[in-house]
Design a protein that fits this description.
- This protein has 3 domains: 212 residues, Up-down Bundle (Multidrug efflux transporter AcrB transmembrane fold); 142 residues, no CATH class; 105 residues, 2-Layer Sandwich (Gyrase A, domain 2), CATH 3.30.1360.200.
- Helices cover 48% and strands 25% of the residues.
- The strands form 8 sheets. It has a 4-stranded antiparallel beta sheet. The protein has a 4-stranded antiparallel beta sheet with strand order 11-12-5-14, covered by helices on one side.
- With 570 residues, the protein is an alpha+beta fold.
- It is elongated and about 115 Å long.
């Protein structure tokens, strides 16, 4: 080196700058601190293993089934109880598609009683015409077997039915707890049965679809957040079960919270105590803040319906007569079948519904403190939305807070022991503190950056996550050893050309090893086997941080250290 040539500072290297920014940013996210009341504090969030608390396993109540039935018997079962009279099928014409399969069927039936347009609209079976034939009322209805089965199962079980066309027929998702025997009995009553497979087994499954499971998980998570319980992990296991960890919450409270959310529904009163379904909570687009209306002196909860919900409410109000006589047709809100709100439409709302849908609503609950409390509770129900299916707690457990604290201390001690053990082995191998300090410092910085990412994304650290951090650090030490061994040449820095060649070779090995680790962890992330998912994600984050940020900086640092040592020996 020429005497007049000033060496370039390591802190001007882009890799080092990125490393320092990432390290400082991680410390900011972790936000370590200390106070006399709480002791050492951070922004890190701890899971059940380290914080103590409770866990619950809940089962989604529902069934998937394929059934068949006689259309005429289905129609009788649907219409005769509504009109309290008998009907006689006088004709039936099927419309077939290009594959020769029946799509819709026009059925003509008569009755000595009276059938009104409102009654047929309430059934929602399809397009129809009503006429008088002598002393009889004649109805010509265009419908399909799937529509009739959907309505029949929904009316009989008082549940939502979601049909789906599959490669081997129509599969009905019944969103309530129902046994195979109950469905078989219902279908036998209308000349049908559960469809069988070729081997004679029943096409009945005690579970719900994956889409329903995921929707339930999302709504449960939102429900927890609406109750002020942030960052509670809600995990799915298969298509039937959901796991919920309540860190820092006792088992009794956890059960109450998990069992409290339920299926939210709005119905409208038709005649007497009879009601008609209007919409589910999924049609509620947004919920406002509970407020006090100075004009009428009432507490109320504002909410907004999406287009489908607004149109459904307008249709139901007109068909039931609520727009012309609102006091006789209450709007009723239910949670798990239990009434949480009931009130008639206001006169202004009834008049507006005659001409168009209403998207923004306010549910008044009263003028006193009790009215305010009811409004706040209704706000929670509305924000939670409707669980597609009810849930049943089938497993529960508790981790004592003291035990969680012990796990936390043991995790820290284990990490420190591992770090000292690594430092000892490295020193024994190289006998050079100039190599030991950068290597251990790089490992510590990786731990800080992993914890910074966890804090930034709100990831809850549990024992598998701690194991993932240790695994990532172990992998990192392997990579640092590879770099050191490739760079060292008879214990000192080799010529520049040789150094560059060897560092390139080292990073080729490191990238291959890192890719293998990520690929190996991939299935655990995708399959999501409970806590193993946390282990896999933490390991992947650690490997990514090491390869992209820490390893290049270590390569630069070891070059500087060995260069200074070589110059000092001249």
């Amino acid at each position: 080196m020429r005497e007049d040539e000033e060496p370039k500072s390591i802190f001007r290297d882009l890799r080092v700058i990125i490393f320092i920014i990432a390290l400082l940013g991680s410390i900011v996210f972790i936000h370590p601190g200390y106070n006399s009341e709480d002791g050492f504090t951070t922004n890190l969030k701890y899971g059940l293993d380290l914080e103590g608390g409770s866990w619950l396993q809940v089962k989604l109540q529902g069934a998937l089934v394929q059934v068949d039935a006689d259309m005429n018997m289905l129609l009788k079962a649907l219409i005769e109880p509504l009109i309290t009279n008998t009907i006689e099928i006088t004709g039936s014409t099927a419309t077939v598609n290009v594959q020769g399969q029946a799509q819709t069927q026009t059925i003509t039936f008569t009755t000595p009683g009276t059938i009104t347009n409102s009654q047929m609209d309430l059934l929602g079976l399809g397009e129809y015409t009503i006429s008088k034939q002598n002393e009889l009322t004649q109805v010509k209805l265009t419908t399909s077997k799937e529509t009739l089965i959907d309505s029949y199962l929904g009316n009989s079980l008082k549940a939502e039915i979601v049909p789906m066309v599959t490669t081997d027929g129509v599969e009905y998702e019944i969103r309530t707890a129902v046994t195979e025997q109950q469905i078989e009995a219902l279908m036998n009553a209308v000349g049908g049965s559960i469809v069988k497979n070729a081997d004679g087994s029943s096409r009945y499954q005690d579970r719900v679809r994956a889409e329903t499971r995921d929707l339930t998980k999302t709504i449960l998570s939102e429900k927890m957040n609406s109750l002020g319980l942030k960052d509670i992990p809600v995990k799915t296991v298969g298509d039937e079960y959901i796991l919920i960890d309540f860190a820092g919450i006792d088992l009794a409270t956890a059960r109450e919270i998990a069992e409290k959310p339920g299926k939210f529904e709005i119905r409208i009163q038709t005649t007497g105590n009879e009601t008609k379904h209007v919409l589910y909570g999924e049609n509620i687009e947004s919920v406002g803040i509970v407020g006090y209306n100075e004009e009428d002196g009432m507490w109320s909860t504002p909410f907004t319906l999406n287009e489908a919900g607004a149109l459904a409410l307008q249709k139901a109000a007109i068909e039931t007569g609520a727009t012309s006589n609102p006091m006789e047709h209450n709007l009723i809100m239910l949670l798990d079948g239990n009434e949480v709100y009931s009130a008639p439409l206001s006169n202004s709302a009834a008049q507006q519904l005659e001409t168009g849908p209403i998207y923004s609503w306010q549910s008044s609950t009263g003028s006193d403190d009790e009215g305010k409390s009811k409004a706040q509770q209704l706000q929670i129900h509305l924000r939670a939305g409707a669980l597609p299916v009810n849930v049943e707690v089938i497993g529960a457990g508790h981790v004592d807070a003291a035990l969680g604290t012990q796990f936390k201390k043991q995790s820290v001690i284990s990490g420190l022991i591992a770090l000292f053990a690594v430092a000892f082995v490295v020193y024994r191998k190289y006998h050079q503190k100039e190599i030991l300090i950068p290597m251990v410092g790089t490992s510590v910085s990786e731990v800080i950056m992993i914890l910074g990412v966890a804090s930034a994304i709100g990831w809850q650290l549990d024992l598998p996550s701690i194991a993932g951090i240790i695994a990532a650090i172990g992998t990192g030490i392997d990579h640092l050893v590879i770099i050191t061994d490739e760079v060292l040449y008879e214990g000192k820095l080799p010529p520049t050309k040789v150094y560059l060649s060897r560092i390139a070779k080292a990073f080729t090995i490191i990238l291959g090893a890192a890719a293998t680790t990520v690929i190996a962890m991939g299935p655990l992330v995708l399959m999501g086997f409970g806590s193993l998912k946390g282990f896999a994600i933490t390991t992947i984050i650690g490997v990514f941080i090491g390869v992209v940020i820490a390893r290049p900086v270590y390569g630069k640092m070891i070059n500087e250290v060995l260069k200074d040592k070589s110059e000092g020996q001249i």
